[in-house]
Amino acid sequence: MKASLQRVCVTGTGSFLPNEPVSNEEIDGVLGHLVDAPPRVQTFTRTVARRMLEQSGVRSRHFAVDRETHALTHTISALGEGAARRALEAAGRRPDEVELLLISSPTFDSGTPPTSALLQERLGIERCAEMEIHSNCSGVGKCVQVACDALRLGRYRTALVVYSQLSSVYLRSCYFNQPLMNKTQAALRYILADGSGALLLEARESGAAELPGELLGTFVESIGGRQAPAMTAGGGVCDILNGQNPAEAMYGRGRHHLDQDFAAVNRYAGPYLLQGLLRMLATLDLAPERVDHYVWSIPTLQLYNDQIARACELLRAGPERMKFRATHSGYCGGASLLIHLDEMVRSGELKRGQIAAVYSVESSKWMSAGFVLRW
Fold first, then answer.
1. Which residues, in sequence order, are bridge partners of residue 102?
2. Other CB atoms closer than 10 Å to residue 222's CB: what's the count?
3. DSSP-derived 3-state class of residue 368
4. What DSSP assignment string belongs to 156-205?
5. Single residue among 177, 204, 231 that ends a domain in this structure
6. 352 in a domain, yes or no?
7. Is 10 helix (H, G, I), strand (E, B) or coil?
8. Could you say which of 157, 181, 204 is where a domain stops?
9. What is the pLDDT of residues 219-247, one digit of tens each?
10. At 297, is the pLDDT very low, low, confident or very high (cuts 50, 70, 90)?
């Protein structure tokens, strides 16, 4: 006789922002000044970047950087540990009760061992299944889908999902080959931030009654099969195919710099986010007007304002259901989704029985992913 599928619930949320908040005026001092960058880049940081910050809607953010030495204060696994412990505490669970541990990040602590095993060690979990998903903003949805499917099938009873964004790796002045920098690479210092978020998921027996925190479904897709990437960072195999010294192949050409196609992001990010979100809701047979809260990882108020009218029209909802939430946390990539969700849970904004659709689009190769839960 075939066993019934389990239901899956979010029983704890957690988030972590490293160190004290950094105001707009303090960014260069914390990350280090670009004294060797080309004149056009330095002019940009003094003029256009200032206007960007004024229009961003972000008043402070957090960096895992020592203000005096500019050394990193946290690794990716250390950031993840902060959020993971808070999610476990919220759920009333111990680390050794975690059976499946998943972490996603666009970077990693080391080529090997994987960051997932390093996080396992930090949490003091002697034995569990662990997986690491290398991704940017879509990594949260990918992890939740893997965890949800594994719990529904009865393979595990508990799963801890963690996402860490350590943007400072790419942003500190010491990281750049400054004479090779361009304005776009410098601009990302005024957009990105550090932080982590976590969810504890647990399997529940099937039944008719509504369960608090139940996941109603997940969704993952990529439409990047024929589209150029809009965010790139070297440092991998593709940069050393020709037998060059890695330092010359990457640092010597500035291939390790994080870069962004802002024109493509401005053109596609908003529409692709809404299109993917609508496909997720359609897949789950969920009418948009039934959703009480839409949780997105939108980096700036300007991008939010550019899309809000269209979003309200397509989702048949007012702007109060889809707020800009990065004012005091900054844009932490995929971690923003879980940071915002955790804030909503702890403040009581997300109420029992309400439905939240959590979704993000990743410009690196136009992937998107998300999930829906009834709190």
1. 131, 161
2. 14
3. strand
4. -SEEEEEEEEETHHHHSGGGS-GGG--HHHHHGGGTB-EEEEEEEEEEE-
5. 204
6. yes
7. strand
8. 204
9. 999 998 999 999 999 888 887 777 778 88
10. confident
